[in-house]
Specification:
24% strand; alpha+beta; elongated; 12 helices; 15 strands
Length: 434
Amino acid sequence: CLVDRGRERRRARAEREVGVAELRRHGPGREPVAVEVGGDLGRHPTELGVERAALYEWDKEKELYRPSQEYGLNEEDAISFWNRAFVPGEFAFLDSCRDATGMLACQLDGASGLNAWLAADLTQDANLGSPNALLFAVPIAVRDDLYGVMIIEEAAGGLRFRSRRLEIITGIAQQAALAIQNDLLQKEMVVRERLETEVQLARQIQKTFLPETLPTFENWELAARWKTARQVGGDFYDVFDLPDNRLGLFIADVADKGVPAALFMALTRTLVRAAVLENASPADALRRVNELLVPDTKQGMFVTAVYAVLDMNNNELTYVNAGHNPPLWVKNSGGIERLTRTAIALGAFIGHGVEERTIQLESGDHIFLYTDGLTESFNSEGEFYGEERLTDSITANQCSSAHEMMDVVEKALLDFVQDMPAADDLTMLVLRRV
């Protein structure tokens, strides 16, 4: 019976020792920090005169001191160390380092270990000439960025070589700060590269939503440009065949930029493609798209759009302008007419009227559709390009093809903005009757 009890005690002790060893190696479910403080300080304990040491990492986002490394703690203190993080106000000696620019010292008064660190009286001035062991706290920081705090408890007879010891501890703290900073920068770089890869993939996917090539017809010409201010954007256009020798033209602008706008664009395109198959009328199609968009619209997002159906048998264009920049009807006979709004933006409200209008296109007429990234482009003096400059560039040139009109507008815009970066997505679509 005594033998069995002895075995049980030995086994229980072995299990505790294994548990502490695992905590010392890895901490409570966290990756080990790049600096092994225990190894650095414990390599030559006689020369350094260090009895115990610990490193706490400062979690800036959660405002928390997390256990990272320790050396010399007994079994009970080691378990307590690894299983507890501290918020500001719970560990005075750690808190004192948040605004400190250098090493801090504190009297131990004969006590030692983790509980002594927690109870340290910071109101007592530490005498660096005292023969008793002192407790030191060193901020692990680069410039004003605090990465953690290293706590050092001297061995008995701490006065001997104290000056040299403090120099070495300060050097270790500086190395630890640089190592932690490099580790964090490396992790940020990995995240940034992964995000960059994902955004590039998102751009490739988004481009598949656009027509790969524009259809060609004997009596009609098409030209298009699509540019994003960021790698993905909320502008898009579409051209698709419809029954009875008709052609669908769609251009839209989501009220945002970047990834959120791109996702909303993908949703809108999908709904439009489905709605035009069920509704021959442009007004009915956009009314249905709006009904489906509104319930899913969050954070005030909406999309302005123009949907037009070209009847190539009768040379008629029937369109709905849902809160979008008015397309320009450039007539071969001279003059420009704006195709003004006939509905509110999609995704805003349900129940508002949606009207459609029909125009007759003559030979040589152009329809120029665009997003506000064109007219709201600005130069170095902060002036907007504006609709007036746009119409002036068109009327100043007698364009004989859809591609020529696109080139004329793009050149005039580039001459205006010069080297200014694009502030918004830009899409242009031109239809011309030959």
